[in-house]
Structures are given as C-alpha cells and as structure tokens.
C-alpha cells in the first residue's frame, strides 16, 4: 500500500504539478466533493432528516444556485483582476464549489421552475456528469489517465 501511495504521489507530480494543471485538478476535486455533499444535504432536507432546512426569506426559497453564481462571479473576477499566484489554489477550489452549486441546479435554469425532484431534474445530474467528464478528460490530460490506469493494473496485479 505504501508503494501505491508513492506511485500516486509521483504520478501527481509528473502529470499535474509539472504540467501546471494543479488549478484544474483543484477545480475538479472541489467540484466533485461539493456535488456529493450538496446531494447528501439536499436529500436529508427533502426527507426531513436532521436539523438542516431550506434557506428562506419570508416566503422566498433561496436556491443554492444563487450562492454558486455569486462564487463564480467573485472568483472569476478575482482571478482576472489580480495575478496573484498565492491565491490560485484557493480561487480554484472556490470556483469548483461555485460550479458544483450552480450545475447541480441546472434543471432549474433550463426549465425556469423548480423541478429538482421531478423527472426533468435528471438534467442536472446529466450536466454534472458532462462537466466532470470534460474536466477529467481534457484538463487533466492523457498522461494522467494512462498513468492512473497503469497504477490500478499494477495494484490489482499485486493483490
């Protein structure tokens, strides 16, 4: 297992760090983690499990799409306005969070009504799968995926 961890670290260094793709990697990881967490929380709210509830102001339900759009606008502006390499990782993570919050409610913008729990709500999941595929395949690159495949084959071959 220690060898696998070392191999993963070397692959990360070679395919992500040296190629300058760390920002894309952090966007992808933040996107996936946020999407999973938001789905869990949303299902808990819908099933009335736990203390979490929808955010409302008066009778107005504030969708988390709003927070996602705000994060995208703020991080996009900051990334363009300031060339600050020390903030690149933070902005990448926040951008990934904002993109996940926004795309998870893609069906809302597509249908202009809250169809999250309806059949049409499936288009949000489809949008997320497409976004993750594009990020994973094109941004991380061929070297990363070939190297990952070799690690998996080697790991299972040693079991």
Q: Could you tell me the number of beta strands?
A: 2
Strand order of the largest sheet: 1-2
**Gyration radius from CA atoms, angstroms:** 19 Å
Number of helices: 7
Average of pLDDT: 87
Number of domains: 1
Low-confidence runs (pLDDT<50, min 5 residues)?
Answer: none
List the secondary-structure elements in sequence, H or E: HHEEHHHHH
Defining traits:
159 residues; mainly alpha; 7 helices; 73% helix; globular; Integral membrane protein; membrane; transmembrane helix; transmembrane
Explain the layout of strands and helices.
Blueprint: H1 2-17, H2 22-46, E1 56-57, E2 60-61, H3 64-81, H4 88-103, H5 106-111, H6 122-139, H7 142-158
Antiparallel strand pairs: 1-2
Helix pairs in contact: 1-7, 2-4, 2-6, 3-4
Organism: Sphaerobacter thermophilus (strain ATCC 49802 / DSM 20745 / KCCM 41009 / NCIMB 13125 / S 6022)
Keywords: Membrane, Transmembrane, Transmembrane helix
Transmembrane segments: 25-42, 62-80, 92-112, 124-146
């Amino acid at each position: 297992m220690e060898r696998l961890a070392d191999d993963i670290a070397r692959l990360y260094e070679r395919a992500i760090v040296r190629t300058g793709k760390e920002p894309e990697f952090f966007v992808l990881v933040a996107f996936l983690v946020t999407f999973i967490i938001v789905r869990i929380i949303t299902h808990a709210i819908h099933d009335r499990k736990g203390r979490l509830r929808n955010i409302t102001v008066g009778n107005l339900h504030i969708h988390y799409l709003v927070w996602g759009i705000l994060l995208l606008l703020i991080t996009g502006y900051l990334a363009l306005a300031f060339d600050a390499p020390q903030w690149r990782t933070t902005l990448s993570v926040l951008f990934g969070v904002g993109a996940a919050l926004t795309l998870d409610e893609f069906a809302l913008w597509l249908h202009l009504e809250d169809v999250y729990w309806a059949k049409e709500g499936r288009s949000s999941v489809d949008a997320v799968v497409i976004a993750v595929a594009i990020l994973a395949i094109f941004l991380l690159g061929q070297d990363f995926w070939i190297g990952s495949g070799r690690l998996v084959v080697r790991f299972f071959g040693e079991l």
